[in-house]
Amino acid sequence: MFDDTLYPPLDYRCRCRVKPLSEARGAAKVLPSPKLETITVDIRTNEYTGEERYAQRTGIRINGTFVAPNAGFNANQGKAMLSRMARVAAEKARAVHPDIARTAMKELAADKRFKNSLPKAVLAWVLDLLKG
C-alpha cells in the first residue's frame, strides 16, 4: 500500500507533515494509484568488518525519475508503532489474571485500528479471551 512505504519521516531529521483533507477537498488532489517499485541500493561497506551492506528502497516513478524515501525509511512509522504497542499490550495481558486481561483487552479491542494491527495468532487469543 502506498501510505505504508511513502509516509513521513522520509529521511533523518525529516520535517515533512501529512495534512488530512476532507473527501470533498482531497478528491481533486488525488492522483491515480501509482505503481510501487523496489530497488536495492548499496549503503556502503562497513569500515570495521568489511561487510558490504545493501538496503531496499520502495518508491514511485515521477516523469521517469525514481522518488523514494532514503534507505531505512520505507515504513509508516505510526502504523509500525501501533503494531508494536498492540503486541506489547497483548503480551502484558497474558501475564495477568484473566479477568484483568479481559477488561483491558475489551477496551482496546473496541478500537478497530488496535484490532487490525494485531498479528492473527494474537488476535485469535484476544477474541478467545473476550468470549470469556
Polypeptide structure, described:
The chain is an alpha+beta fold. It has two domains: 2-23 and 31-67, no CATH class; 77-131, no CATH class. The protein contains six helices and three strands, in the order H-H-E-E-E-H-H-H-H. The protein has helices spanning 2-5, 23-26, 77-94, 98-109, 112-117, 120-131, and strands spanning 37-45, 52-62, 65-67. Strands 1-2-3 form a three-stranded antiparallel sheet, with no helix packed on it. Strand 2 and strand 3 form a beta hairpin. Helix 3 runs antiparallel to helix 4 (98-109). It is flat. 11% of the residues are buried. The mean pLDDT is 85. This is Phage F-like protein.
Properties at a glance:
flat, 3-stranded antiparallel sheet, 132 residues, 2 domains, 6 helices, alpha+beta, Phage F-like protein
Overall 3D geometry? flat
Largest sheet: 3 strands, antiparallel
Number of helices: 6
Average pLDDT number: 85
N-to-C terminal Cα separation, in Å? 36 Å
Q: Could you say how many structural domains there are in total?
A: 2
Q: What's the short story on this structure?
A:
This protein has helices at residues 2-5, 23-26, 77-94, 98-109, 112-117, 120-131, and strands spanning 37-45, 52-62, 65-67.
Present the secondary structure layout.
Blueprint: H1 2-5, H2 23-26, E1 37-45, E2 52-62, E3 65-67, H3 77-94, H4 98-109, H5 112-117, H6 120-131
Antiparallel strand pairs: 1-2, 2-3
